[in-house]
């Protein structure tokens, strides 16, 4: 930049860098401003005099570093007065990388590395690390960072650039609402690509548009339309226009929005951009749906419900209802090319791997049926509905008991309350019976809890209505015994010959190929398992960074005998955008369909235990791995 060697520019950069990084050293400042140690020291003297007037000390201590000492608010006030880029101070690594990506995708021309270090107040080393991280992110979106003599830039179609910008803004979306008006608070760090006046104007225009057209916008529709317009305005200014191979007549409501935007903002909106506004308005008009809006004699609702029942792994009426309500308006959006942003996709993949995988398979089948593409964020929303269904089934994992009492409902109610206080989550009371009714009723529960001695050939425990400590201990043991009988088949899925600790392979393809071949060799799988697992990874990565694991798997038709193969590389494995250390190749077929709930319950407990996973990573042999995984509750 032209003024980068001006004294005030150097002082601004140094102050911002010290403020942002808390404690720095001479070598960092020398790299930042491209000056000698002696020159840096001279500018630090000037800076020290500037802040001293405000009661702030600039400390330079050997073996510690250079840092400010004093009221943080005052330091910030000084910095704001002398720096035009104060919005970028004090932000964390993740936020800085988001803003760097936003800056790159919103600029058409290449940008010099030196300019970026000045804009973001970081050293070249830090910026280089940030760029490498962004390259991984962009690769997963089929985009890339390129470099020429003029600097670096993002090479991607305009539509993808806007999608990336939309995703970043959505992550920072802050909105507060009162009964009459919605207020958007755009974080200052994102204000570089627009300004407060434009944001307020766009809000007012959307509110006016809603009143004129009498369209009621959901939170998502408001957010989606607002972000699209704000990004559109910035891109039009730089003549970066969208192209859409679709000839369509403008809707009346779209014409109203265009007039409002052009009149209020004094701009002309090109036809290419109007086509996309058309899509948003159409999605809003089609986006409100409920079951009562449909006559089930109509073919479309019946067709979707039929598809759900025939392609979901398992379901109840509740799940069918929930997914119908979610998918009916979503299908309209998909066909128009609109995909919703999900801020919790990574968490859903991590915490609900089984539900996510079922959602992914189902969404692929639905996409093929409807000739649409369903993105991973949309898949994650479907996974939430499936997870809710799976958790409804969790009661099946609890011990079911019937209370038998001869002294009246009051006594039974007291015992029930005490049982729920002490054993909630492990025990569920299904009903209360008299002794007489007990012998005339078919018992399907796991346990009979009686307040009176009875003789019956059925799991039984005698308790008093007051449930003393000894009785609680006896019941606890009884519950564990019953659970042990219902225990999962996880132990049978592990075989020493399928576990490889302390390995050196470090890529997705290498490890899936190795584990797939081992499963074939020991007659647990058929040829095709490797390509099936690799294709599944291409749909959506099964990896997570926390914990550092991957869960590849193949279609069940390639599995002869259900097993879990394991590969461990303590030094790390590059798996898509993540680095993992443990790979669980989950090879399950329909033969254990009825045991899947128990298998995944045990598996999820393992994945949630970071201490256990660290121990597994450091194992030296396969038997040690098996022992840890089977007895994980003891560690």
Overall description:
Helix 5 packs antiparallel against helix 8 and helix 9 (196-213) crosses helix 10. Helix content is 52%, strand content 12%. A five-stranded mixed β-sheet has the order 11-14-15-13-12. By secondary structure, it is of the alpha/beta class. It is globular and about 95 Å long. The chain has helices spanning 7-21, 26-33, 37-52, 72-82, 93-105, 113-120, 124-139, 158-171, 196-213, 219-237, 252-265, 271-286, 299-311, 317-335, 345-351, 353-370, 376-392, 409-423, 435-438, 469-485, 508-521, 529-539, 596-607, 610-617, 622-630, and strands spanning 57-61, 65-69, 144-148, 151-155, 175-177, 182-184, 399-404, 427-433, 447-450, 460-462, 499-500, 543-544, 549-550, 563-575, 578-587. It is built from 25 helices and 15 strands.
Can you give keywords for this protein?
about 625 residues, alpha/beta, 5-stranded mixed beta sheet, 4-stranded parallel beta sheet, 25 helices
**Beta-strand content bin:** 5-15%
**Total strands:** 15
Shape: globular
- Largest beta sheet, briefly? 5 strands, mixed
Alpha-beta classification: alpha/beta
Rg over alpha carbons: 31 Å
Strand order of the largest sheet: 11-14-15-13-12
Distance between the termini: 58 Å
Query: Which ranges are low-confidence, i.e. pLDDT below 50, for 5 or more consecutive residues?
Result: 83-90, 174-183, 288-299
Q: Give the fraction of residues assigned to helices.
A: 40-55%
Average pLDDT across residues? 80
Number of helices: 25
